[in-house]
Every structure is written in structure tokens, then in C-alpha cells.
Amino acid sequence: MRYDQATWTREDGDENAGSYEPLLAEKRSTEVTVDESPLPDDLTRESVELPDPSEPELARHYTRLSQMNYGVESGPFPLGSCTMKYNPKFTEDVAALPGAGTHPARSAASTQGTLELRHHLQTYLARIGGMDSVTLQPPAGAAGEFTGILVAKAYHEEHGNSRSEIIVPESAHGTNFASAALAGYDVVSLPSAEDGRVDVDALEAAVSDDTAALMLTNPNTLGLFERDIDEIAEIVHGAGGLLYYDGANLNALLGRVRPGDMGFDVMHYNVHKTFATPHGGGGPGAGPVGVVEEFAPYLPSPQIEERDGEYERVEPEHTIGKVHGFAGNWLVLLKTYAYIARLGDSGLTDTSAKAVLNANYLASQIEYEIPFSPFHHEFVASADRDAADVAKRMLDYGVHPPTTKWPEIVDEALMTEPTEAETKAALDQLARAFNNAADDDDEALETAPERTAAGRIDQADAARNPRLSWQTLDD
Amino acid sequence: MSFDVPDDRGYMESHEWASEDGGTARVGISDFAQDELGDIVFVEFPDEGEEIAHDEQLGVVESIKAVSDLYSPVSGTVTATNDELLDAPELLNDDPYGEGWLVEVDLADESGLDELLSADEYRDQVE
Amino acid sequence: MSDTGRGSPFAPHTDAETAAMLDAIGVESQEELFDIPEDVRFDGEFGIAPRSEREIRHEIQLHLDRDDDLTAFLGRGHYDHYVPSMVDHLADRSEFLSSYTQYQPEIAQGFLQALFEYQSMLVELTGLEIANCSMYDGASALGEAATLALRARSVDGTRVLIPELLADGRRAVLENYLAGTDATIERYPMADGNADREALADALDDDCAMVYAENPTVRGTIEEGLSEIGELADEHGALFCLGTDGVALSLLEKPASVGADVVVGDAALGLGASGGLGLGLFATHEDFLRQVPGRLVGVGEDSDENRAYTLTLQTREQHIRRERATSNICTNQAWVALRAAMHAAWLGADGLVGLAEDCVTNARDLADRLDDVDGVEAPAHDRHHFREFTVRTDRPAAEMREELEDEGFAVHAIDDQLLQFCVTETNAGQIEDLAAAVEVVA
């Protein structure tokens, strides 16, 4: 098995030069002097210099760049905790329909169709999560976390409780810690028990009158279901705190368990994970937040509500205000709606079945220790050598590697989530990539990758001498 | 794996060292610390003239994938800083007890030196 | 093999494959793989019927058709500029669209280079040394700027001064970003649409962490004393944060030349009217490099000593620094940044400056035309304008806005007797029609 990513050699013909596409600024650049503008000179800048390639050159530039980039359609992408599944094409066309993206300041009366769609999506998400109300405003998962924590904070303040702590399991996503801190909370980190789950005794010891909430993802980052969830909910609720569900791993549970039924009060959904909206190399995503009835009055403003067949923008009674300047990443949400509608009940339930089946099948085919089980949609294998090196070598075998070195509870972790969208044949290819890398000697690993657009990149050099724009490059 | 732990200085459990010489002390991080962090890309320490105190935050050191707080082994006033580290943080990896020193401190009366681990004690900790 | 006999069309397993996989795992059924206590299991229905592609496209089209077909003269932060076809076709290449954050840079050189180019263009436009590769929108970028000001070692103080006239979304989001701090937000007055610099000077003291101003302002006026604001902020050790947009940047005073420490805003490039989906700009001085929120692409070398691109300085970010990260942002708007860079490169400097000049002349033309109408005074502020302006009305503005909808136009009513109109190349052709409609309702 061999993989070669498209590469383009330098014009000097050096065949070992690896990938190379000149920067736009190195192609053609024009400086324009601003001197005949319709404004007085003291209100304008003097000049602007920008790249100025023709459209044919631009088309070739970006096509070449795309050929030096790996996406879900390039091959398997089992990046643990990121749920990189196939993004259906038709949802792109839906989002590009004329009139799909009306200006967010349009009146409710003149956009009843769009508001109805938003309301339908709120309803779908509420049902899927077992929640009572949903806001679509947060523009990403982390923004959803922040929104949820602000809701908890507003709730406690409304009830005269000034609580100062959010409890987060040590193995949680980094955003949980950062979102809680952004909302002004002290973060209490909760160590895992030996079985990789929440240590219920430690949780009992950690909760107090200061506990505003516990943030939890279930299944957790090891893929394990938190079987003590009833007890966990009882402890947190008993202390007067809220239970927050991080929706990052919802793909494992679709149609089988709902966060609301497990006792969660607030949750966010990661639409680019669970609902297949394309990640776009970093975003845009969307992070809708669901709450049970008691917390609905605190949601961001406006909420879309239906009254007698009319859809209105309503300000919730104790709203936290706004978390996005406009109405969130609407076109991404529209893709979410289309995807959920395509799947329906049976497709959603089949999604979690196949996601869990694929993870378990792949695990059965690789020669690595997997210390914690039974896992669901993802597993964490131990590389037993430098996991980052194993990942680099896997690039040479034509796959995107797993998430590496996290969670730290597993030594040299390879956190692997194949998703439901891979065929058995693709999983077999992935397994070969894992196993070939395991069989390769240290030198092959340390010098990998060799078949990619760039060789191993010196991260230390890039960080020690930050060059963050073409203006900083000499040659 | 064994780490270099020179006998001529004192150590913190948090892996900083101090070596005294007539009322002033140099401060740095240990060989073990630089190895744990990996390639160090950035270091932040107090300016000249700032007061620092034993076991309180001295600065921050960053590698590509980790960030660590530094704690001061001694109390006193910073009299010199190793500004070469700003351009060449790799000195912390290459020579943690020599060219990779962080700051020099004019020691206060209660310098904190007595509280430091000896080289033997620190060796026991990291081995 | 699904419970209802019809599974996900995107889970490509044949029954035989599923059986073989279960066999390899050593279990009898898919259900056996779920380690979930009975008492929390969901055995109900969502009540969501699966539909075909064709049905869904038809259904959504029917919904969208229920929206009134209005010509929008709306702005206030979200702008509709024409985006060339090239942008859609190239940005939609699945190698870009279906890729992830560039944690494995060796197979992500293309996207990294495109983001590096985006950062570089923003560096040129702002004159500041550092630009990140996106925030959610202008409002969250403003929130991030304020938390940066509070963190920066060179800045004391906790007061954040913002203009009295500011988009509600930006103010409300800023309030939430500062909810976890001891900062206070205070508004300074405006004089005829622009910052009242005398009042601002009175309001400033050494307890200020940041002064925020916009150019153009939310009402489209062009600020005339930005350097003075920059100097005032500097005198009191506060950061000067300037809000603007990607098109205005090419024509109006260069932020670095008026003393801006941070530039934020909505890009206004790469996407047209998109329901609020956009791109938050964020640029700052290199002094604050370690305090920058979000992702940064840098240049390094690969093992063959060739130039290569990589995400860098990641220790600022949440996945490493957790509760002490500079921001909680993870997923951002990278694909929109890719589109904005494509759009800007397609325009080139000449095209971008020309587009910005049109924003001035189109607004002027529409204002001139409306000023001829009895019962309205346009523009309400005696200022230069960019893209949009306000109009004083004799009749209640809210009523006129509603009646203009009946005439086929969407505009802002922002006060009892103030309407606001925004004009770009996408609606400039309907200036006459709009003016005729205003004549009807004025």
C-alpha cells in the first residue's frame, strides 16, 4: 500500500523540493495609490498592495492547494472525538438555494418560511436530545458550551446563589475548561477512576454549595458509557448544581439514549460532528444549545416561537442576551436540518449502530493494546511507542491518523473514531495502516512521512521564530 | 534515564534550581524539567528590578505542546535577566544549568535558600 | 440491519458485511455493543420521517418561498457584496470543504497556505503585524479584543469604553464575553453620528483598559478623528480597538496609522447575504502575540528544508492551556476565511479599492436622491458615509418600514424617526425604485 499526495516541484527543477506552490504575493502583486477617491484625502489611506492574479491563475492556484490537502473524501479520517463523517452533497445545494440566506435583520413578518425552518430544527434537536427548548444562536461547539454555562450562571444568580465552581473531568475536551473560565468560574478538575469513568466518590467529595455545574460527555473520551449516570446526576442535583452535556460524542447514542433522559439539564450539539455539516478546515460549525424547561427562560435572545401558525422572535424572560452578533451560522444550520430530515428516526438510530460497529470492528483488527472497554463510537489504543511518530507514519499509508497523546490516561494514546460512514474495506485499509506502522522500525517512524506534500515539519522552529505573514519572509 | 543534577545548587520540587554566590543567586530550570517539556519555544520571566518570592510564580515556560508555570526558588530582587533566551529559548534545552539560566536575584534576608532540596534529595525525586 | 429496516444512506454496510464484522468482533448483534443501563434507554420515537433528497430540496424551497421576495437595503454589520462564481467552485472542492483543522500539517499544506495568505492580506490591510485565521464574527472578535486588553500586562484598568451608537448584537455579545471578569462597559456619547471626542477625553482615565471605536460607524458615518482617539487611549495606557470591515479597510485610514492596537470586524468578503453567517476579523500588534485568541498559521521548514506551513503558538489555545487559554474558541470560520482570501485576490487591490469607492458614491447617490423626497431628510448626519446612512423621517419610522415592505423593500427602522439604508453593488440598480417607494410612504 502506498500513498503519494500530489506535489509540485519548484521551478528550479529540484526534484527533492517537495510541495511548492508560490504564495499569491509571489505571483503578481499590485500597489494601488488611493488619490482620486470620492473622500477627502485625510479620511483615506495612502495605498493598498494586494496580489493581483488573473482568474485562470487563481483557479490553478487554489486547485493546486486543494491537491495538497486531505479531506474526508480523500480517504479514512478516524480522528478521535472529531466525528469526521461523510458530508452529503445535497445539503450544500440546499444551503445555496436562492433566498436561503436572507439578511438577519429582515422582519419576522417577511421571513415566515425561514423562521418556520428554524423552528422545525429547534424541534428536531429538542427531540433528539430529550430537551424542551433549543437555541440555534451559538456559532460553534465551544460557543455552545459558553452559552450553556452562562445559562447556568444566570439561573443561579436569579435564585440568589452565587456559585463559583464548575467541575470538569480531567479527560474532558479543553474547551470545557476554557468556556467555564471565560464565564468567570473556577474550574475543578475531577480525576478519573481506575476504570476510566467518573470517580463517583471523588465527585461526591468535590461537590459543594459552590458547585454551579458538572460538565460531562457521555460516552466519555475513552468511548466508555458513564454507567453511574443516575448517581452522578443525583449527586450534582443534590448539591444544587446543573448537569451539562457536552454533545461531542452524541453520535454514539443517537436514538438509544437522550441526554435529557439521563438527567442532563443543558447540552450543546456539535452539528459538524453528529449531523455531518462539513468542517471546512476549521469551521464554520454551529453549536445549538438545548435545555430542559426550567432553564428555557435564560436562553439567548431571540427564540423562535410559534403562535397560531405565526412564527415570532421572542425575548426569553431572563435571557442571557446574545452570543452571536446576528442569528448564528444559519446556512450551516440549514444543512443540519436537511441531514436530519434525510435520515429520520431510522437513519439516526442506524447511525449510532454503525458508528459503534465500525469502532469495534476496527479495534478487533489492529495489533494494539486498548486498555479501556467496552467502548462505543471510539476507542483509545496505546501505541507503546511515540504516538505522534505512529501518526506521521500512518500518513504514508494513505489515511488520516487518529488523535494522538490524548486523553492522557492512556499511555501514548491513539484516539480513534472511524464513524459510521466507512465501509468494511476502508476499515480494513485503516487497520493495515495501523498495523504496518506498528511493524515499521523506529527509523521509518521518526523520518515519516515521506509521501506527503511536505516532510515532517519542525514545529519548534516555527514557534521560536514566528513568521505569520508573507511580509515577514525575506526570500 | 538519568538526569544531570549538579551538587552545587539547591532545587525545588517543581524543578527550578538556585545557586548562591555571595548574596546573589542565579535561577534556572533543571535538566529533568527541560527534558519533560521537550523543545522549549518561549520563556517569560520578570523584569529587572521586580521583587520575587520563594515558591511564588516566577514566569512561564512553553514548549510546542505544553505550558509550565515557573516558581521562584528564592526571594529577592531581580538584578539581571538572561535576555538571550528571548531569541534562543533552545538554550534552556541545551544547557539548563549554564547558558540557560533565567534570572539573577539579589537575595532578601529570608531568601528561601534553606527550604530548597539538596542535589541528593532532588535526585531521589526525579529518578 | 437497522431497527426499522431502512438505515442511514450514509452508512454503507451490506447485510453480509455487517454480519462479517459482528463475527470478527465476536458478538451476535449490534445491540450487544451498547453498554447502556436499561433504565436510561430511549425506546420512543423522534417522529422524524426520513425523506429523499428530492423531497427535502422541494420542502425547503417551499419554506423559502414563504419568505417575502423583498429587495434588502439592510446592513448594520452584515453586508451583501457580490461574490464571484470562482469562489464557490474552488472553495467547494471537497479537499478544502471536508477537511479538518490542520493538526497534521504535512497533509494540509494547501489549506494552511491559503490561511497564511488570508492572514497576510489582513496584515497589509490593517498595517498591524499579526492577524489570526478567523473569529466567529465581528461581535465575538470585539469580545476577544476586550479580554485581551484585560490580560495584557502593559494594560491596567477595567473600564471598557464603547460608542453609544453600536449594533445591539456587538454590545450584547461583548457584555457576555466580559461577564466573567470585573470589567465594566461604559458608553461614550456621539456627536452627529461620530465619536464625541471631547466627551471621550473626559470619560478616559487610567482605569480604562480599552477604547472601542468604529470606522465606518454602525450608521455608516466615516470617523474624522481616529488619530486623536488613538492618542487619547495611548495617553491613558488603554488599548485602542478599531471596528471596521474588509472592504472599508482598503479605502479608509489604515488602522495602524491612527494608532489602533487591535482591529476587529465582520469581513464583508467571501459570502453575500448569508443569514448572518460570516467571518470575524482579528488583527493586532506583535506585542500581544502571546495573547492572541484563536489559530495562527506560521511558516516553518520541513525535513527537506523547504518552506512549509503549520499551525503555531498553539500553547495559547484551549486544547493545551485549558482554563488559562487566551480564548475558548476551537472551531472557527476557516472556510469563510478561505473564501474571503479568494474574493480579495480575485478583486485585487484595484478591484477592492474600486468596490470601496463605490460604497461611498452609491450611498451618496441614494442619499441625494432620497433627500429630494418630501418628508425625509437624507442623510440625517452631516458626515461622509460608507455603504449606509440614516434618514430622518417626518412620519414614524416603524410605520414607514412596514409600508416599505409592502412596496417590496426591506430597510432598518432604528429610532422613532430614523430609517437606515445600506447600498452595495447588489442593490444599487434599484435605487430609483426604492426612492419611488419612499415617495409613496413618506
TrEMBL record, chain A:
Keywords: Oxidoreductase, Pyridoxal phosphate. The keyword Oxidoreductase applies. One of its GO terms (cellular component) is glycine cleavage complex. Its EC number is 1.4.4.2. Residues 352-439 form the Glycine dehydrogenase C-terminal domain. Pfam families: Aminotran_5 (PF00266), GcvP2_C (PF21478). Residues 1-54, 437-475 are annotated as: Disordered. Residues 150-280 form the Aminotransferase class V domain. Coiled coil: none annotated. One of its GO terms (molecular function) is glycine dehydrogenase (decarboxylating) activity. It catalyses: N(6)-[(R)-lipoyl]-L-lysyl-[glycine-cleavage complex H protein] + glycine + H(+) = N(6)-[(R)-S(8)-aminomethyldihydrolipoyl]-L-lysyl-[glycine-cleavage complex H protein] + CO2. One of its GO terms (biological process) is glycine decarboxylation via glycine cleavage system. PANTHER family: GLYCINE DEHYDROGENASE (DECARBOXYLATING), MITOCHONDRIAL, GLYCINE DEHYDROGENASE, DECARBOXYLATING. This is glycine dehydrogenase (aminomethyl-transferring). It comes from Halococcus thailandensis JCM 13552.
TrEMBL record, chain B:
One of its GO terms (cellular component) is cytoplasm. Binds 1 lipoyl cofactor covalently. Residues 24-106 form the Lipoyl-binding domain. Its cofactor is (R)-lipoate. Residues 1-24 are annotated as: Disordered. CDD domains: GCS_H. The modification N6-lipoyllysine is found at residue 65. The keyword DNA-binding does not apply. The keyword Ribonucleoprotein does not apply. Keywords: Lipoyl. Residues 1-18 have a biased composition (Basic and acidic residues). One of its GO terms (biological process) is protein lipoylation. The glycine cleavage system catalyzes the degradation of glycine. The H protein shuttles the methylamine group of glycine from the P protein to the T protein. Belongs to the GcvH family. The glycine cleavage system is composed of four proteins: P, T, L and H. This is Probable glycine cleavage system H protein. It comes from Halococcus thailandensis JCM 13552.
Automatic annotation (TrEMBL), chain C:
Gene3D superfamilies: Aspartate Aminotransferase, domain 1 (3.90.1150.10), Type I PLP-dependent aspartate aminotransferase-like (Major domain) (3.40.640.10). The keyword Oxidoreductase applies. It comes from the Archaea. One of its GO terms (biological process) is nucleoside metabolic process. Transmembrane segments: none annotated. SUPFAM superfamilies: PLP-dependent transferases. Residues 11-429 form the Glycine cleavage system P-protein N-terminal domain. One of its GO terms (molecular function) is glycine dehydrogenase (decarboxylating) activity. It is an enzyme of class 1 (oxidoreductase). PANTHER family: GLYCINE CLEAVAGE SYSTEM P-PROTEIN, GLYCINE DEHYDROGENASE (DECARBOXYLATING). This is Glycine dehydrogenase subunit 1.
